[in-house]
Structure formats: C-alpha cells, structure tokens
Design a protein that fits this description.
By secondary structure, the protein is mainly α. It has one domain. The protein contains 10 helices and no strands. The longest helix is centred in the last third of the chain and has 31 residues.
Length: about 240
C-alpha cells in the first residue's frame, strides 16, 4: 500500500510538472534569453578605459538577479550540512564559470544565448534529480556530483561571457574591467549564497524539511524545466 501511494505521488508530481510546463510554454508567445538592461548596456557602450567599480557592480547585479544561477546553487547545497563541503562545491562552481567567462570573452568565443541558457536551466533539472537520488534508482550508479558541479560551472561561465560580449565593451581597459566583472560575480554569488544558507539552515531545524525535501526538489526540477523550455522556445521562435 505504501509503495502504491509513493508511485501515485510520483505520477501526480510528474503530471503536475508536465501540466505546468505546458501552461507556461503555451502562454509565452515569444521568449528571450535574459540579457543586460538597456541602461547598463548603454552606459558600458559609451564608456572606455578602466571602470573597476561599475564592472564589479554589474557582475554582482547579474549574479544576484540571475535566478537560474541561484536555483542551481540552491540545489547544490540543499543536502550539504558542513561549511567545508559547501566551500568545496561552491569553489568548483566558481572555478568553472571563471575559466569560461575569462577565456570566452578574451578569445571572443560565445554560444547562442538561448542555447546556453537552456543548458543552464536543464542543469537545475539535473541537480534536482541528483538530490532525489534518481540516477542511482534508474541506472544503478551515482554520477560524480563534484565533477558535475564543475562542468555546469563551465556552462554557466559561457552564459556570463555571452552577456559580457553583448556589451560590446571597448578594448581600452578590457582585461581589468573583465576581472572586475568576475570579482563582482563572485561577490554576488557570496551574497546570494549567504541568503540561501540562512533560509535553508533555518528550514532544516524544523520537521517540515524532511517531510517536504522531496517536493522542494520536484519544484526545483519544474523551475529548471521552465527555464530550459522558455529558452528553447525563444531559440526556435527567433
């Protein structure tokens, strides 16, 4: 009876997820990859030389308002209780996106914004499934969570590089401005992570955490599918 209830619950969650995806994709006639604001873009395009503080601000703003990045980090630390483990995974993610951010901009390598944002969305789905122990149940093995975090960090970095290239920033002061942007991203990540840790640490003290952890990851997975589907819709429409 318990097994039947669990199977029924899983089916209901799947139907809810598919229904939510269908509604979101049906009511969005046109989707766009999240970009920079017109005000920020205009300011950068009209400026040249070293602009350390503005680029630190832009990097922090991009990360704090980048809900897909924060959702992925939320999934990464969902079951991490020790600060040491949190530091390891966040460092792997930071190294990954720093490498592709810097190399992507300096070598002028970018990926279609819709495609890279769709991959970022589906990275959220992957992490939610990983938290639900789905891969071990389905395939009989557990993928390396550390390697996956590093790899998805690389993809997230390409997403950041794509946004930077949209600025069409001046070559004058490019390298220091780029490093300033990366520092801003790290600061924004720390601020976002601090809030996430505060909330989830408080939640873990209540009995509802164990009761609703599975459903929270189902919701996380739904969010990832919505982000990914939104971007794929934008890719085919545009």
């Amino acid at each position: 009876m318990i097994d039947y209830f669990k199977q029924s619950l899983h089916k209901n969650n799947l139907l809810f997820l598919l229904g939510l995806m269908a509604i979101v994709l049906a009511v969005i006639p046109e989707a766009y990859a999240h970009g920079v604001t017109e005000g920020d873009k205009g300011y950068i395009q009209e400026s040249s030389g070293r602009m350390i503080i503005p680029f630190i601000y832009l990097g922090a703003k991009h990360m704090v308002t980048g809900y897909d990045h924060l959702l992925f980090l939320f999934g990464v630390i969902f079951f991490l209780y020790r600060l040491k483990d949190v530091s390891i995974y966040v460092t792997l993610f930071a190294v990954g996106h720093s490498v592709t951010l810097l190399s992507g901009v300096l070598m002028n390598v970018s990926i279609n914004a819709f495609i890279i944002d769709a991959i970022i969305g589906f990275s959220i789905v992957y992490k939610a499934l990983d938290n639900m122990n789905a891969f071990k149940s389905w395939f009989g093995f557990q993928p390396s969570t550390k390697l996956a975090t590093l790899i998805f960090g690389l993809f997230h970095g390409f997403g950041l590089a794509t946004k930077i290239l949209e600025y069409k920033i001046s070559e004058d002061g490019l390298i220091p401005n780029l490093f300033a942007f990366n520092i801003g991203v790290e600061l924004g990540q720390i601020m976002g992570l601090a809030i996430i840790l505060l909330v989830i640490s408080f939640w873990r003290r209540s009995e509802s955490f164990n009761n609703h952890a599975y459903h929270a990851n189902v919701a996380l997975m739904a969010g990832g599918f919505i982000f990914g589907g939104y971007q794929m819709t934008g890719y085919f429409i545009n």
